[in-house]
Amino acid sequence: MTAAFAAVDWGTSSFRIWLCDEAGSVTAERRSGEGMLSAEPDKFSAILEQHLAEMGAPNNLPVMICGMAGARQGWIEAPYVAVPAALADILAGAVRVPDAARKILIVPGLAQRRADAPDVMRGEETQLAGISSLLASGSRLVCMPGTHSKWVETKDGTVAGFRTWLTGEFFSILSKQSILRHSIGTAPAVIDARNAAFKDACEQALNGHGDIGGALFGIRAAGLLHGLGPEAAAARLSGLLIGSEIASAGHRFDNSGGRIVLVASGAIGDLYAEAFRLAGRAIEQVDAEGAVRAGLVEAARHHGMTKKVQS
């Protein structure tokens, strides 16, 4: 099949590219660790063109990009769109890379400019566009786990507001740089959502309404006094952090017990799904990678790169 455009999710530490046909179906893909942190501003073009050449893409193939390539420290800045903002208007605001030999557009991020709750996102707005059919009518609450977990309120296809939790970053810092590193070890084990230590800690955080300050050091103490091993210590830390996030978000957003849209894949998706089950919350889970790719397809359609949308 002939590619109509390339879709790129350019994150802080990762790079993913898909060649897509007129219907938005993937014809080829590549991924690497060449995220924003490893790409100097003058290297973005070379990285992209090398991947396109190795995929056999023609020189005039247009490209749609989302993520940190549009940050101030990225390739070019795609200025934030202020919320409330309709998903279609966000995609329409994609910024063209100047002086590029081919047509290259970068989707803007979102900014919440409230003085009492400032917040920003880049990349997640494209995932939201990818699940626009779920958000088209009524009020919805979306949870998007990651290094910086986003919780988003939407109303009739418009992003009304959002808030960020540093859950993934907290896990990384606490497990690698705090006293807890002695309990967890140098390489934290992959955490299974069925792990009893994870579930117990998650319930503790949920019942404590998100206050885990006094429980974190207990991981270290349990290793010294009760033989808590590295795998269980990592699971306990994860459970405390995720449970705290969900409890805190429950107080922040009035979802009236409605179904939460969980945009997550793999192990992290399993952990959040279990945490929501423990919290007694119903979810509708969507694959995160599929959502961002679908959002890039929708952005490409908005800008005339393709005439059809993947069904």
Question: Would you spell out the secondary-structure blueprint of this structure?
Answer:
Elements: E1 5-10, E2 15-20, E3 26-32, H1 44-54, E4 63-67, E5 81-82, E6 85-86, H2 87-92, E7 95-96, E8 104-106, E9 110-112, E10 119-121, H3 124-130, H4 132-135, E11 139-144, E12 149-155, E13 158-165, H5 167-177, H6 181-184, H7 196-207, H8 213-226, H9 230-252, E14 260-263, H10 266-278, E15 283-286, H11 288-302
Parallel strand pairs: 1-4, 4-8, 5-9, 11-14, 14-15
Antiparallel strand pairs: 1-2, 2-3, 6-13, 7-8, 9-10, 11-12, 12-13
* Topology pattern, helix = H, strand = E: EEEHEEEHEEEEHHEEEHHHHHEHEH
Helix content: 25-40%
Determine the mean pLDDT.
94
The order of strands across the largest sheet is: 3-2-1-4-8-7
Report strand %.
15-25%
User: How far is the first residue's CA from the last residue's CA?
Assistant: 17 Å
- Kindly provide the radius of gyration, computed on alpha-carbon positions and rounded to a whole number of angstroms: 20 Å
Q: Could you explain the architecture of this structure?
A:
This protein has about 300 residues and is an alpha/beta fold. Helix content is about 40%, strand content about 20%. The chain has eleven helices and 15 strands. A six-stranded mixed β-sheet has the order 3-2-1-4-8-7, covered by helices on one side. It has a six-stranded mixed β-sheet with strand order 6-13-12-11-14-15. A three-stranded mixed β-sheet has the order 5-9-10, with no helix packed on it. A hairpin with a 2-residue loop joins β12 (about 150-155) and β13. α8 runs antiparallel to α9 (about 230-250).
